[in-house]
Design a protein that fits this description.
The protein has 400 residues and is mostly beta strands. The protein contains 2 helices and 27 strands. The chain has 3 domains: 61 residues, no CATH class; 157 residues, Jelly Rolls (Sandwich); 131 residues, Chondroitinase Ac, Chain A, domain 3. Strands 5, 8, 11, 13, 16, 17, 18, 20, 21 and 24 form a 10-stranded antiparallel sheet that branches. The longest helix is centred in the first third of the chain and has 4 residues.
């Protein structure tokens, strides 16, 4: 086998198909036999004489969505929508790939881990099927060896027109290595508030530097509807969304002080792949599927906000007295202070100082089952006998 000094990059046409051969047989008049020239014009000579040899290079066609401009244009042959039927709340691309893709966007993506250098990006236009929260996930690829980075771009000149980098379509969000239990923490998922009918561009890129930049992946985009209400300025301002705490998925909340008015929105989500999306080394999920709320407020406030979350008890796999609310605060999961739990109303009340993603979790080290509880609902029967009268008093079990 011949030895070469330096590193050689083999270049083939990006749109070519078939097999290419490179002749390494000796050339007359060249020292040491044959030679190769890289894309920069550098000549590499063998350090030993070579024997006639051939190297076979398989050319890979670029995947669908390699060009952002083509991917978002409905009349372009390269149009690459994530959803094939308008109005679908869940859309998937089971065998997506970025093998053979060029870098069409910026060389970096701003994520929860900072600036990540990327290459081989693929683009998908997505028209939101609901007003609420969009979840973009590659987490179904449980044993993927890929290290993917996700990014969402805003619409272009109008809400109905998707956009590409370098235009008036700035990135809204980015994510890298935030799926749980996967090799090296990859692939990735992210959430973004969306408006029904408006277009967003999803970018899937490979993280550069660890040899896991290209390959196949499973891409899923879900839309979870929610409600938005206007909240005025004032002290001790209360409001409700999604039917309030009397409705599964609803919220009641009280702001200590609102400095400027704004719109408050909350989207209730039932996440089938939450075990992959959420790092359970930090806390336990309350069930499978898990229950979560994506919450945002366009105004500003001072102090704390008390929130009562209404959950679906049929989705629980833990005792209700173990329930906790975890808040994703700038990429870090934080346990929130519990004000109260009401197992009869199926609610849990906590306080927070910021909004984003909230997940119904469970205490990783649960206390012993209270003597008066039966899965969070205890019936205490007191026999009161007075003047021959038997009275049975029932008390609901409420734990703070």
């Amino acid at each position: 086998m011949s030895k070469y000094v330096g590193t050689l990059t083999l270049m083939v046409p990006g749109d070519a198909l078939g097999t290419f051969t490179i002749d390494l047989s000796p050339r007359d008049g060249e020292p040491g036999g044959g030679y190769l020239v890289d894309e920069f014009g550098t000549v590499f000579y063998p350090s030993l004489d070579v024997t006639p040899a051939l190297i076979t290079v398989l050319a890979v066609s670029p995947p669908a969505g390699d060009s952002c401009v083509a991917a978002i244009d409905p009349v372009d042959p390269g149009y690459n929508p994530i959803c094939t039927s308008p109005g679908d709340l869940v859309c998937t691309v089971p065998s997506a790939t970025n093998v053979g893709a060029d870098l069409d966007g910026t060389s970096w993506v701003n994520t929860e881990l900072g600036h990540c250098t990327v290459l081989a990006d693929v683009w998908y236009p997505y028209t939101a099927s609901c007003s609420g929260t969009m979840v973009v996930s590659t987490c179904a690829q449980i044993f993927s060896t890929l290290d993917l980075v996700l990014e969402i771009h805003e619409h272009w000149d109008s809400p109905l027109s998707c956009g590409c980098p370098g235009t008036s379509a700035p990135p809204l969000a980015g994510a890298d290595e935030n799926c749980d239990g996967l090799l090296n923490g990859c692939p990735a998922f992210l959430t973004q508030s969306v408006v029904a009918g408006e277009c967003y561009t999803i970018r899937v890129a490979g993280y550069e530097g660890n040899g896991k930049e290209q390959g196949e992946y499973f891409l899923e985009v879900s839309c979870f509807p929610g409600e938005t209400v206007s909240v005025p300025t004032g002290n001790d301002v209360g409001t409700s969304v999604n039917g309030g705490s009397d409705t599964t998925g609803g919220l009641d909340l009280t702001f200590t002080e609102i400095d400027s008015p704004g719109d408050f929105s909350a989207d209730y989500m039932v996440l089938d792949d939450a075990d992959a999306m959420i790092d359970e080394t930090e806390f336990r999920l309350s069930g499978d599927p898990a229950q979560a709320w994506n919450v945002s407020f366009s105004g500003s406030f001072t102090g704390t906000v008390e929130i009562t979350f209404s959950y679906d008890p049929d989705l629980l796999t833990v005792h209700e007295y173990e329930l906790l609310i975890y808040h994703n605060d700038q990429g870090v999961w934080t346990e929130l202070p519990v004000v109260g739990r009401d197992s009869f109303a199926n609610t849990i009340t906590v306080t927070t100082t910021s909004f984003s993603l909230f997940v119904l979790g469970a205490d990783p080290n649960p206390p012993p089952i209270p003597a008066t509880s039966d899965w969070g609902l205890a019936t205490l029967a007191l026999l009161v006998i007075t003047a021959g009268t038997l009275a049975i008093l029932h008390r609901r079990y409420v734990v703070a």
